[in-house]
Amino acid sequence: MKAAFVTGPRRMEIRDIPMPRIQRDDEVLLKVDMVGVCGSDVHIYKTGQIGGLAAEFPWIVGHECAGTVAAVGASARGLTPGRRVAVDPLIACGRCDQCLSGRKHTCRNQKFLATPGQAPGALAEYVVLPAECCYPIPDSMSFVQAALSEPLAVALHARNLARIQPGQTAAVLGCGPIGLCVLASLRQAGAGRLYATDLLDYRLEAARRMGADWTGSPLRQDVVGSIVRAEPAGVDFAFECAGQQETVDGGLRLLRPGGMLLLVGISEQERITIDIHPARRHELTLQNVRRQNECVREALDIVAGEKVNLDPLATHDFALADSQAAFEMVSEYRDGVIKAMIHVAE
Questions:
Q1: Strand stretches in the chain, DSSP E
Q2: Strands in 153-272 per DSSP E
Q3: What whole-number distance in Å separates Cα of residue 204 and Cα of residue 212?
Q4: 143-162 and 177-188 helices cross at what angle (nearest 10)?
Q5: pLDDT value for 114
Q6: Which residues contact 83 (CB under 8 A, 6 or more apart)?
């Protein structure tokens, strides 16, 4: 079978490798139909590492995926060959203290697709996964929508951590695919006025389509000052989705006393600092957000119920053979790209 490997910084190759085999009764062989290019994949493509974890090249990336069940193990219940599924890319052990306390996303023995040192990615014609990672999707749902349920699930986990109530205000700082999914999830939950910032105008236009009431670029205005003037008491929540020092600083300045800054973006920097005095005086909460924490089913139900439309996020389509072109486009923000989708199956 064919798979796309990152072979070095900004280098990809399509290689022929052996077909993976089911090793355990609870596993399925999945024919991969669709993979979305995520920012974390681009980190590895550009720098060879993500979140302090270095990849050993060659390495297969891609974790936002959907496909068709090709074969099943003896105990893979509820799945049969031909079933279309979305994928939760987290393979948790199910036995450690974190798994047993409802925190599979911080499993001590986890293997997350495409994460260096854990599990190879899904940018291949076939992958083997535990059956519990595969969620059947209705015939009405496209593979693009199913793959995009993964970033939406991250947004839902962030929203759930905030416990946002109808009418509460929020700012989303950084309107890449995750930030846009956060906006859509907040609007779907009945949030009040939503503010969004980004450096790219086309992303701000997308933010308005996904539910933002106000958008602004720090290249043209003092976005923090503008939001503070509109919300002099401060917003209830700030979702930092860019992984940058500037957006962390801005998020803290935007919050009302007792507000919450949610750190959703993955930073390429090893350290980000906090202005401790306003954080302490206003007793602000800093909440890190990691992955989906079993929100994939909720995301699929929201998409299937047409409560959130993810289709505008998928702006560009590529074949597996053109994976490097997809990654170059995303890494350079070319041609108004929001999410590049790689159609693995012909």
A1: 2-8, 11-16, 27-36, 49-50, 53-54, 59-60, 64-72, 84-87, 90-91, 111-112, 126-130, 134-136, 170-173, 194-197, 214-216, 235-240, 255-263, 285-288, 314-319, 339-343
A2: 170-173, 194-197, 214-216, 235-240, 255-263
A3: 9
A4: 70
A5: 95
A6: 68, 69, 136
Reading the block at residue 23, the tokens are 């090793």
How far is the CA of 243 from the CAs of 110, 209, 267, in angstroms?
Answer: 23, 23, 4
Q: DSSP assignment, residue 214?
A: E
Q: pLDDT (tens digit, 9 = 90+) per residue, 54-100?
A: 999 999 999 999 999 999 999 988 899 999 999 999 999 999 999 99
Flag whether pLDDT at 206 surpasses 90. yes
**Scanning the structure block, which residue is given the tokens 């023995």?**
109
With a CB cutoff of 8 Å and minimum separation 6, the contacts of 277 are none
Domains, the chain, ordered by start: 2-136+310-343 (3.90.180.10), 152-288 (3.40.50.720)
Amino acid symbol at 226: S
Cβ-contact 34, 143 below 8 angstroms: yes
Q: What is the DSSP letter of 319?
A: E
Q: Are strands 170-173 and 90-91 parallel, antiparallel or unpaired?
A: unpaired
- Read off the pTM: 0.96
Task: Measure the CA–CA gap between 109 and 340, rounded to whole angstroms.
Answer: 31
CB 220 within 8 A of CB 245: no
- The residues with which 70 forms a beta bridge, in sequence order, are none
Strands 194-197 and 339-343, by their bridges, are unpaired
User: Would you tell me how many other CB atoms lie within 10 Å of the CB of residue 82?
Assistant: 9
If one counts every other C-beta atom within 10 angstroms of the C-beta of residue 205, the result is 16
Identify the three-state secondary structure at position 110: coil
